[in-house]
Design a protein that fits this description.
Layout (H helix, E strand, L loop, with lengths): L11 E2 L23 E4 L24 E6 L5 E7 L30 H10 L4 E3 L6 E3 L2 E6 L5 E6 L13 H12 L7 H6 L7 E6 L2 E5 L7 H5 L5
Parallel strand pairs: 1-4
Antiparallel strand pairs: 2-7, 3-4, 5-6, 7-8, 8-10, 9-10
Amino acid sequence: MTKILAPCLVFMVLLAGCASENTTRLAPLPPHSAGSTTFGHDSTLTAHTGPNSSVASFPNPGAFKLVEKLTQNGQTVEYWQARGQSGIYGGTLRVSTFGGGPKTFNYWAATDVESSGLGLLMFERLIDTDAWTGAPYPRLARAITISHDKREYTITLRKGLTWSDGRPITADDVVFTFGTIVAKGYGNSSLRDTLSVYGKFPSIEKVDALTVRFRTSVPFVPFLSGLANVPL
């Protein structure tokens, strides 16, 4: 049964510090191993926007911040604190750009823009692309590490993530999504094609309860962008 992510996955919208308008510099995070590259809440990313850029006229909101909260039963939950102005919890989201409506609420079977667009609102992804830096940043993930040979991607999930029925989101869900639904071409096979490198789908393995490792056959720069297109 398809599950909708629980409200605990929604970003906490709090006021974040702003960097300069044209350049973003985030605090460095030591790599997990020599020669590796790590993206996380402290990762170092730099981007420049020109005068014709769509984001050039807006102040860069800076980095997302990972915060921890304790639930009533003492469980640790990690949230990404959103950037920008504080919002008010609740309300109604009205979307006016989805044409005649979706043909399905199953994202992986969607072949039309309306269904795919709504699917990305209902389900969450491991990572996304930062509009100011153009670099990947974690969403369900808390950190992404790329190996020295640029073929291995180790992704760690945040603590305390749950589905709408309260069950925890774990590495098994990631392996099932990518290793079964996507890799075996259930539904929209274009998701598999965009992640394949020279016709070979990357391997995926569970490292521990909250960590998975993807491996491509050769270095493939768009790989993280492909991951950003697939929700759990």
